[in-house]
Design brief:
Elements lengths: L1 E2 L17 H4 L8 E2 L9 H6 L28 H17 L3 H11 L7 H17 L16 H17 L4 H13 L3 H14 L6 H6 L1 H7 L2 H14 L4 H14 L2 H14 L4 H13 L3 H14 L5 H13 L4 H11 L1 H8 L2 H5 L8
Parallel strand pairs: 1-2
Helix pairs in contact: 3-4, 3-5, 4-5, 5-6, 6-7, 7-8, 8-11, 10-11, 11-12, 12-13, 12-14, 13-14, 14-15, 15-16, 16-17, 17-18
């Protein structure tokens, strides 16, 4: 399953999660694109241990506070102080110096708050998560991969304290929901998500919420991910990215009728988005509507970044195995997916060989 997102930094490079060209020669069909990236609650080291990538060194709950100065603060620049605080604790956690981060952030709570306290609580939430990342057998009852229920509650308490100080701190909102998803507390996560979406009515934060979808996918919790998306849909019913993700998750649950309906709706809302076309093509492909699939694959590729080589390799595979047109597949792969062309097409003698491997 490809992962992508509309977001703050970039779209995730498909190649980090795609199969090799050799495996595609065995007939792997193009996969749907989930409009998200996987983010970890705390440390880059946790992300690495789970085989994921992040856009930042740290995950959700780790950006500087968006606190604003108040009249009684006088000349104190709370935003600057919060950024400086983040720049001190974040590298410690990223480097695995959990005890140093804890000592630093606990010390801040004993000083007047000039923008440090919110960062201290987010830091301590991440510290707690880091210390829980151990095999469940070594600790108490596991709430997630190495997370104890008691530890999750303690980390959540720090996020709640951060939100008491700055109710609209985006990263505390995100960190709280992300932790609940990681712990497998899906209903609680959805309740907190609903609260956060009510607080942030614009669509600005949607890319961040989409990033958390990868957790459901990796946990094999497609139905729970669908419920999560339905909460977002209630707040943003006309957003094409929501419809596109709903379509991808319906497809994961095996409900192709709903998947098709949502993906057609996504294309109607925004016909210029390549991922909407790609996911719709994938469902048409599965339902043997190959002409429709071919058309939407081509529409997606027409506006995708030229660097998305894997998508073009997938399409060459579709031409060869689904449309059964090896000549066209080889011609397409020659310019669009040289790796597959070299592996699957070979010389003219190989093309003429009966029962030879499909072109892409």
């Amino acid at each position: 399953m490809h992962l992508s997102h509309h977001g703050v930094a970039r779209r995730l490079d498909w190649r980090t999660i795609a199969n090799t060209a050799a495996s595609r020669l065995r007939g792997t069909a193009p996969r749907p694109i989930l409009r998200s990236v996987v983010l970890c609650v705390a440390l880059a080291t946790l992300a690495c241990s789970e085989g994921t990538t992040t856009d930042r060194a740290l995950g959700v709950g780790s950006a500087p506070s968006n606190a604003r100065a108040t009249p009684q603060d006088g000349p104190v620049d709370r935003d600057r102080m919060a950024r400086e605080a983040f720049d001190r604790w974040a590298p410690l956690l990223a480097g695995g110096a959990v005890d140093d981060a804890r000592a630093l952030c606990e010390a801040w709570l004993g000083t007047p708050d000039h923008g440090h306290h919110v960062e201290a609580h987010k830091c301590l939430a991440n510290v707690k998560i880091a210390t829980m990342r151990k095999p469940a057998a070594e600790g108490g009852p596991a709430a997630g991969p190495g997370l104890s229920d008691a530890g999750v509650e303690q980390a959540l308490a720090h996020y709640e304290k951060a939100l008491t100080l700055v109710p609209f701190d985006q990263d505390a909102h995100l960190g709280r929901v992300d932790l609940l998803i990681l712990a497998g507390h899906y209903r609680e996560a959805n309740a907190q998500l609903d609260e956060s979406l009510s607080a942030f009515e614009s669509r600005e934060m949607l890319p961040h919420w989409f990033k958390l979808l990868g957790r459901f996918q990796r946990a094999g919790a497609a139905h729970e991910g669908l419920a999560y998306l339905q909460v977002i849909e209630r707040h943003h019913p006309l957003d094409h990215r929501v419809a596109s993700n709903l379509g991808a998750f319906y497809a994961m649950t095996g409900d192709d009728e709903q998947a098709l309906a949502q993906l057609e709706r996504a294309v109607t809302i925004n016909p210029d988005d390549p991922y909407n076309h790609w996911n719709l093509a994938r469902v048409y492909d599965k339902r043997e509507r190959l002409e429709d699939a071919d058309r939407h694959y081509q529409e997606a590729l027409a506006v995708m970044n030229r660097d998305d080589i894997r998508a073009r390799c997938d399409y060459a595979q579709f031409i060869a195995t689904r449309l059964e047109d090896k000549t066209r597949a080889c011609e397409y792969a020659r310019t669009q997916c040289p790796e597959l062309h070299d592996r699957g097409c070979g010389g003219e003698a190989e093309h003429a060989e009966a029962g030879s491997t499909p072109a892409a």
